[in-house]
Structure formats: structure tokens, C-alpha cells
Amino acid sequence: MKLTLKSPAKSTLQPVVKEFFDKATWTLTYVVYDPDTRDALVIDPVWDYDPAASKMSQDSAAEVLNFIQAQNLQVHYILETHAHADHVSGSQVLKRNLPKAQIGIGARITDVQKVFKNVFNLAADFKTDGSQFDLLLEEGKPLHAGALTVETLYTPGHTPACGTYIIGDAVFTGDALFMPDYGTGRCDFPAGSADDLYSSVQKIYQLPDHYRVFVGHDYMPNGRELAFQSTIQEQKEQNIQLKSNTSREQFVSFRNARDKTLAAPRLLLPSVQVNIDAGHLPQPEDNGTKYLKIPIKE
Q1: Residue ranges, the chain, pLDDT below 50
Q2: N or C, fewer C-beta in 10 Å, the chain?
Q3: Segments making up each domain of the chain, as ranges
Q4: Which residues fall in a coiled-coil region (predicted)?
Q5: What is the Cα–Cα distance from 47 to 297, expressed in whole angstroms?
Q6: Per-residue model confidence as pLDDT tens digits over 68-84
Q7: Does 3.30.70.1530 match the CATH number of domain 11-275?
Q8: Which of 127, 213, 131 is nearest to 166 (CA)?
């Protein structure tokens, strides 16, 4: 199947992409903007969380906001590639400071909400229709942010609701693809699927070879410097886990075996229950304190 995308407008063919790296969670946040109109959006912001002290801080968000202000950008949307399991989303922090910005995520977030409502035994009135987000993005329906146009690809596997965003020649893969020397995202979270991820990456690989690929995390393997940008061609030729000629059977076998050796992300439990609620913290209880739920296994 050949993927067909509308050609982006000239001013958005090569949008400017500014990265922000949170070393505590190895996360890349991106500000994407048109240098002529200053139209912009933010992808995968971080809200800093110290699990030992159970304390939130806004250093990562402040860095992004300072850049937006310095560049005089008009942020239309704050987009999540998926409900992250390794960092708390900073979308609500940004929105409080960018009141015109709306928070968006792929429409299949509803599948993830249904799974984790049960995992965390959330209140009966917790909605699983995605209504906590301002908009749900669908494949084949472009999103317009001023001069920028966002195309959404559904790329499940890491989670059932993962999406990849294409803005001009820039492709934001979240946790589907990492840098070629690291590979792909894990697939062992509830409702994850290595088979689905294989299909998703094939969709990404149908994009033009020169398109720039921006990853959601970089773990700096073998002590190398931070890297976050490659191309479709580089991924197809060099990705150590999933090249264009890697068979489905090879990848699924490798990914499933690899995932069995991985520990849970450090911030898995706090992150997921906040992120499926569009980055909202729980409401205060009768003593004025907010609490996260931590299931215990015996």
C-alpha cells in the first residue's frame, strides 16, 4: 500500500524544529514553527516529577515557554504522540501559559484509557471517550495550525494509541522509532504489540527518503552524544532492529524476546494515570492533597 500525503505549503516544507532534552527521562520535546508566520506547535512536553519526594516542578516547561516567548511564536497546539509511560506530560503546564493552545492526541487514546481505568481502578466517572483532550486526531484528516499542516499516521505497537506526526518534511515518531543505533520502542505494555509496530514502521518507511525523522527519546547508547534526528533513508538502511528488509518474523521474535528482559520505566505508574487524563493531576481529596494510585503486586 502506497501512502499518499498532500504536498505541504511552501512555507512549511522545512519547518524549523527546536529540540529540548530532559536527561532525567531521556525525553525529547519539540517546538515546531514556521519562521515566516511564527505559527507553532509543541510536541511531547515534560512536567518534571521527583518520585522520591513526590514533587512536581516546571523547569522543563519553563525552558520551552521561554523559547516560545523569545521567538515570538504563536502556539496553536500541544500534541502528544501517545500516553507516555516514562514521563509526566507537561501539556497542562504549557496550556496555562498559552491559553490559545489546544491539547491533541490520536483518537485511539480511548483504547488506552479503557485499559488503564481497570489497571488503576479509577473512579467510575473517569471518562474513556478521550474528552479530557481538546481534540482527537484521526489519520487522513489534516490539522491546520496557521501556516503549518499536521498529518497524523496511526502507528500502534508501543501502545495501541501511538501516532506519528508529519509536518512538512519533519516526521515525529514518538516511541515507534528511535535513532538507528538504538532501534524501536518496546511493545510489552498492556495492549502493546510487536506485530502492530512492525506494520506501523512499514507505513513510516513509505514516506520520502529525505524526510527528517525526530525521535521521542534518546538513550545515548555506548556513551555517545545526544542525537535525535535522522532521515527515513537512514532508518531504513541502518536501524539496528528494523531495517526495510527485516522480516516481520525476525522483528517480532527479537522484540518480544528483548522486551522480556526490560525493567518497567521508573515513572511508569505516575506517568500513565496522569497522561491518560490529558496531563491533569488528580483532584485534591478532603484534606487538600492530591494523590496518585500505586497498585501493589505480591
Answers
A1: 1-2, 4, 6-12
A2: C
A3: 11-275
A4: none
A5: 27
A6: 999 999 999 999 999 99
A7: no
A8: 213
